[in-house]
Automatic annotation (TrEMBL):
Cofactor requirement: Mg(2+)
Alphabetical UniProt keywords: Magnesium, Metal-binding
Organism: Kribbella hippodromi
Name of protein: Mandelate racemase/muconate lactonizing enzyme C-terminal domain-containing protein
Domain of life: Bacteria
Length: 348
């Protein structure tokens, strides 16, 4: 069946619930991230009874889509093609793939395998409340959930501890993770909470930990990233620089990647959007790993993007569940995508 025979008959919303495995604590800027909550998804139905659903990119005008031909809104080979429908990027991809009876990653091109490496993004500053044993417990819990690689929040000295004490704790947590999980990829994320000199002191102290990447150590200033590149080339040439998550200037990030200063672009999977990623990826002279923190559903979106477009070596996992949907399945550190149509989820 083609999209041309379908007309949008309704656009509605519903609330879903999600739960983390535990209460997620602070990072270098923000307080506790809580233990879960609710979020809104849009449900799009056609006159032929097909339904797709998903997260919106932003608030839009659903009434403007009712009565429109689906083929005027989304092209399976390009993504959303009418700006008025852009806010329903994910619901429309889900709907189109369901009508075509293929998974979203297949509609995107199936450039990579539907088994996508996935790290835990949930190791925050819980040691500030529960001591270093809280980090040990969180790592063990995420490992039991199925993760084999871990991203550690660092930058405790930016807000929550005196700078020297925070730096020592960052180093202690990094070394603990490497000691407990010697085979894991260890990623670290500063949330723009470091100075250049502070970051270099940290890197010197964990040089033997073989970090997989350093994420957002400071704002994307070209001279600072150039200094970081030179430092890594001398001391840790295998460590990548990941950036572009927080309020990104996408063209600036693309230019930094083109010049070899950013190795992994992080524009948010929902904030940037699936259609935008489909157009951005061919222009990107680096790897990608769309930021997916917050909702477990975003991890599934990132995995479909990775399997569909390729050039994504690892995605961010949210340790938790979207209740009732089926969510995503982890196997030995990998998201296993189903061959069900669309994103493969059931709407509760």
């Amino acid at each position: 069946m083609t999209l041309g025979s379908h007309v949008i008959s309704s656009v509605t919303t519903t609330e879903l619930h999600y739960e983390y495995l535990r209460t997620i604590g602070r990072n270098s800027f923000l307080g506790s991230h809580g233990s879960g909550g609710t979020f809104t998804v849009y449900v799009v139905e056609t006159n032929r009874g097909a339904t797709g659903w998903g997260l919106p990119l932003y608030d839009g005008n659903p009434a403007a889509l009712v009565g429109r031909k689906l083929a005027e809104l989304i092209d399976p080979e390009q993504g959303v093609i009418d700006p008025v429908a852009e806010f329903l990027d994910y619901p429309l991809h889900d709907l189109a793939a369901r009508i075509l009876d293929v998974p979203v990653y297949a509609m995107l091109g199936a450039a990579a395998e539907p088994r996508v490496r996935c790290y835990s993004g949930g190791i925050y500053f819980d040691d500030l409340d529960g001591g270093i044993d809280a980090i040990r417990a969180n790592l063990a819990q995420d490992h039991a959930f199925g993760f084999r690689d871990f991203k550690l929040k660092i930058g405790r000295g930016h807000r929550w501890m005196p700078p020297a004490d925070g730096l020592r704790r960052d180093i202690e947590v990094t070394r603990l993770a490497r000691e407990l999980y010697p085979e894991a990829a260890i990623l670290v994320d500063g949330n723009d909470g470091f100075t250049v000199n502070g970051l270099f002191e940290y890197l010197d102290a964990v040089a033997d930990c073989e970090l997989y990447w350093i994420e957002e150590p400071f704002p994307e200033r070209r001279p600072d990233l150039q200094a970081l590149r030179e430092r890594l080339q001398a001391a840790a040439p295998g460590t990548k620089v990941a950036d572009g998550e927080y309020d990104p200037n996408v063209e600036h990030v693309l230019a930094l990647a083109r010049d070899g200063l950013v190795d992994v672009a992080l524009m948010d999977v929902v904030g940037h959007g699936l259609t935008a990623w489909r157009h951005t990826m061919p222009r990107l002279r680096a790897e990608a790993s769309p930021h997916a923190w917050g909702l477990p559903l975003k991890t599934l979106y990132a995995a479909h993007l990775a399997a569909g477009l390729g050039n994504v070596p690892i995605v961010e996992g949210v340790p938790g569940r979207t209740l009732g949907t089926g969510d995503y399945t982890l196997d030995d550190g990998h998201v296993i995508l189903s061959d069900r149509p669309g994103f493969g989820l059931t709407l509760p």
